[in-house]
């Protein structure tokens, strides 16, 4: 287990990262403009696909739906790193932060490669295969965040944890005002003994997640709607999205684990 000084140092790194998120505001807003203009001429079937995602995301929050992942493979990776078997999730909570970081980077690398292939394959057909790409990248995003949660000792089978995961998803797509509001929400979710009802109430704007998630594709996804050329833009966009989302998940889950360890020390 890390010392209090080491934990505080790690916490300072995360706080600096949170402050640096403000540098993204201008480019995020600029990137969304073309897609918002294009939204008016987007085919109805694509709008219907977005509506379906809203229902699926709601189902994920309630019971995990088809997006819930198994912890078996992740625990195996952790066992290989520490050189001993892990019997349950409680044992994961005491694994060193360095080991958690190492396994997270491995997962992040694998998911980025998968996202690249996925974006390239769905980008070939332009706007028609974009309808396939949107739910596919959402599913990959939820899977990645759940794996990061497990690595840090948090169980996605718990409803409260799925709320936190969706907040991470929302954070990655929000502008600066939204990011600050979400960080404030998460600070209350980190409270020891937070009730399920309280956590669900923090997600009152969850329907905005899918819409902002789509809008955040920006001008890159605009070019993905062009057949063949979309292969390049689709690969680049999906890879960068998973990279950014993984960073958000790692930082926010790492912060939770550090705060809990500091509370134990105090």
- Coarse shape: globular
The profile of the biggest β sheet is: none
The helix-and-strand class reads: mainly alpha
Taking Cα atoms only, what radius of gyration do you get, to the nearest Å?
19 Å
Structure annotation, total helices: 13
Beta content comes to under 5%
Beginning-to-end CA distance, first to last residue: 14 Å
Helix content: over 70%
Beta-strand segment tally: 0
Oligomer: single chain
Q: Regions with pLDDT < 50 over 5+ consecutive residues?
A: none
| SSE series | HHHHHHHHHHHHH
Average of per-residue pLDDT values? 79
Q: How would you describe this structure to a colleague?
A:
- The chain contains 13 helices and no strands.
- Helix 3 packs parallel to helix 7.
- By secondary structure, it is an all-alpha fold.
- The model has no long low-confidence stretch (mean pLDDT 79).
- The protein starts with a helix and ends with a helix.
